[in-house]
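Q: Predict the assembly, please.
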Amino acid sequence: MTAVRGALRASMLLRSVALVVVVGVVLLLVTESLSSYRNLQLADGAYYFCVLAGLTVLAGSSGQISLGHGAFMAVGAYTVAKLGNAGWALLPELVAAVVVTLVVGIPVGMAASRLRGPYLAGATLAFAVGLPALADKFPSFLGGENGLSINPPVPPSSLGASFPLERWEAWIACAGALVTLFVFYNVIHSSIGRSFRAVRDDEIAASLVGLRVGRRQTLAFALSAAAAGLGGGLLAVVTQLAQPGAFPLQLSLTLLAGVVIGGLGSLWGAVWGAALLVLLPNWTNDIANSFSLSTSVSHNLPIAVYGLVLIGAMLLWPSGIQGGVRAAVAAVRPRVAGRAGRGRPAAVSEAGAGESPVPVSSDQAASDEAAKAPSER
Amino acid sequence: MLTIEELTTDYGPVRAVDHVSLEVPDGSVTAVLGANGAGKTTLLRTLTGLVRPSSGHVTLAGRDITRLPVEEIVRLGMAHVPEGRGVIAELTVQENLRLGGMWRGRDAAPPAEIYELFPRLEERRTQPASRLSGGERQMLSIGRALMGRPRVLLLDEPSLGLAPVLVAQIMSLVRKLADTLGLTVLLVEQNARSALSIASRGVVLNLGRVVAEQDPHKLAADDRLLHAYLGF
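A: Predicted assembly structure:
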């Protein structure tokens, strides 16, 4: 047991594989027991997770904002639709969706790396508004306002003739989410993730250690675009449709709201955000129905609730749901550790050693702090 | 050899560095002294490309680096430890150090020699840089710069805000780096006495111009000059 724990601590790759396997098994078991409707919701959550994981790395680690990720989803969805109708198999279709979005994401990312703050937000916003409108410009190729419909994915016959389509779709989407989880877990915890955070924290310091700031930002942008492309491709598979109406500006905005509410920079935050994106519209619909509100009210209720949740979350948990969870865990842990501590003296002394510096240097640190205080403040 | 020829930098109508020419020989420590606003920091920022000069040239080991992007200048061997240190607060000490070697493709753990120079950093290697004291941040920043194996080290006010014991430690470390690694050091300081105590040469800037350039002992003994430009 301790050997396993040691190996997991030593190797990031091993840790991420273990994480993916555990989550994968749990998802597999969960899909068995869910109704068709719930399985579809799970599939929705899974492709949202792909997009939000990319967006959380972009906005949280690299510090760039994008209001245009709905457009990258559209690129992925249309790629899958075109290739699916040309007779491609599912897996190559999705790989192509990732590659095409990556290729689109690189030039957009290069432009984005030269923009800051509101200018970056504005440029990506224009992308979100402009790109889906291309479908209208090329009606014969992209299907115009009605979009392109795709044949539903067929569960392999080895699973049995009565295997429900919804469960198969949930499996496909969850597989995509697991791949995304694996990739971004490794990105966040590797030198690439550290360089992203360095660039976000202090661009000057990053360039002074020899990092090419623009290229790092382009890389972050292209990676997160590719994830959005995968999410969009999965959306097309699950809904069997790629149409401009599925990628309105509102989608891009709710995606960003999702990562912020979930907790920026954290993959767990992306999970919370994805759950919220799926469940919130449902709940608001239920509320609207149970109060028998007029359609003009019920149609706008989800947006209003988003706004309220965003405001509420920012007041309650400024670092998102995941930040709130972390704070709650931190508040509970000392008590738990204190109780368990008697049984595990090694853990306590280990923690104690880190906190007690050599006497000489602690004096220096203290006098150093004292000297710093008046000059820096 | 770092050669600075007639370097001039303007901030709009304000001339911060005014036709400065300096030759910094390999393995030497040159102390650049001056009061607030003398142009010391701007000189360093111009050397690494953070600010663009209006005219003049900077040559590093025979190559004109005046117009190169910051990260290319760094990759050619010019390390700049900025005022205020510029450590990445949320990364740990070790991660900060690794960042310094990243462009060389060495993302391994920092080599033992860095920790030999800074035993304090080894003790705190798994702590986030935000938890370090000012002196430790200064050491981390210098250590990170060394991870890129530079030829020239530009230090901007390393003594700022540090207790006298620590200032002495940092200064003797700078001397040691020049002696053992053959590092060329350009040391910008307001703390003239401690900087001159380890320098091979002293340069005094005033209003962007070089007003004195001589042996550090003579400079330290020149009360009139120090009084006029440094306010002693």
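Residues 8 and 15 of chain A are 5 Å apart (CA to CA). Residues 2-248 of chain A form one domain.
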